[in-house]
Amino acid sequence: MSDFVIVNEVGPRDGLQSQGRILSIEERLLMIDALLDAGICSIEAGSFVSPRAVPQMAGTAELFSRLPLDRAATYSALVPNLRGYERAREAGVQSVAVVLSATETMNQRNINMSLEQATAVCAELMQRACQDGVQARAYIAVAFECPFEGPISPAVVEYLSQSMFEAGADKVIIADTIGAANPRAVGQALERLDPACRARQISCHFHDTRGMALANVLKALDCGVREFDSSIGGLGGCPFSPGATGNLATEDLVLMLDSMGWRTGIEPLALVEAVQRVQALTGGTLGGHSFRWLERQGGAHV
Ligand code: COA
Ligand code: ZN
C-alpha cells in the first residue's frame, strides 16, 4: 500500500468561517500564499454560501479569480446548495464539496434543509459535478456526535456515505465537526465501509476540541484511510455547531505522519512560518500541540 498521505488544508474555509475578524480578499490570498510557500498543495479555499449566514466567506468568487494557478496546487470550495454550485462553476471551481449532516437538526441549522432534502440536494449536486467533470466530494458532518441530537449511529454514516457514492461522489469526508470522536468510534464508523473504498475514497476531518484528533487519525490510518483535513495552527470551528473549536492543526498532523515515515510532501518545519504568517493575519494566537517545539527546532522566522 502507498505510503503517501494527502493533507488537505481547510484553514481558508473551516478555519476562517468562525473567526471574529473578517479577512479581506487580499488577506485571504496572503493566507493561501503562506500555505503554498509551506508546500501545501491541496487547499479548500473558501465556500459559496450566503454572505449573510457566513460573512467571512463573502467574495469567494473574487478569491478564486485571483488564486495563483502556477503553484501546482488544487483548490476546492464548499457549496451548500444549487445556487452555491452554480456560483462556484461560474468562478471556474474544479473541485466542490457538499455538506450533508448526519442529523435532522444539524441540516436545519446549517443549511435550512431537512435531512431528506439535504440528502436529495447533495446527491443532485454530486451528479451535476460528475456530468460537468468537476471533482465531487461530500462531507458527512457531525458524523460522530451532533451538538443537538447527541451520538450518531455508525449505520447512519454508512447509509449517507453510500448515498453520496451512489450519486457519484469521488470522495466522502467523514467529519467530526465538534471534535467528539474517539479512536474506538472512528474504527466502528470506518469498519462499516469497504476497505478499498477507505483507502481511495474516504477522507477524515477531525477537530481537536477534546485532544483526540491525532489518536483518531492513527485509528483511521490503521483502517486504511489515506487522506485527512487539517487547518494551519489549529484555526477553526463551525459557527452553527455550539462548542466546535479548533481543527486538527496541520503542523501536528504533518509532524506525526512525517515522524512515522509517511510521506506528505510537506516539510514540518516549513509550517512554522505559515502558522506565524496566518497568525499575523487573523490576529489570534495559533499553534497546535507541536508548534512551540517546532519553533524551537529552528523553523521560526520571527
Ligand atoms: N450563496 C449565496 N447566497 C445564497 C446561496 C448561496 N449558496 N443560497 C441562497 N442564497 C441567498 C438567496 O439568494 C437569498 O438571498 P436574498 O435574501 O438576497 O434573496 C437568501 O440567501 C436566502 O435564500 P434561501 O434559499 O431561502 O436560503 P436559506 O436562508 O435557506 O439559507 C444557505 C441557505 C445554505 C444559503 C445558508 O443556510 C448558508 O449559507 N449556510 C451556511 C452553511 C455553512 O457555511 N456552514 C458552515 C460549513 S459546514
Ligand atoms: Zn470542521
The CATH homologous superfamily? Aldolase class I
Number of helices, where a helix is a run of at least 4 consecutive DSSP H or I residues? 13
> What is the highest CATH level, the class?
Alpha Beta
Strand order in space, largest sheet = 1-10-9-8-5-4-3-2
List each distinct ligand once: coenzyme A, zinc ion
Q: How many distinct folded domains?
A: 1
What percentage of residues falls in helices of 4 or more residues?
40-55%
Task: Explain the layout of strands and helices.
Layout (H helix, E strand, L loop, with lengths): L5 E4 L1 H5 L9 H13 L4 E6 L12 H6 L8 E5 L3 H9 L4 E7 L2 H8 L3 H17 L3 E7 L3 E2 L3 E2 L2 H13 L4 E6 L6 H8 L4 H7 E5 L6 H10 L4 E4 L19 H10 L10 H13 L8 H9 L3
Parallel strand pairs: 1-10, 2-3, 3-4, 4-5, 5-8, 8-9, 9-10
Antiparallel strand pairs: 6-7
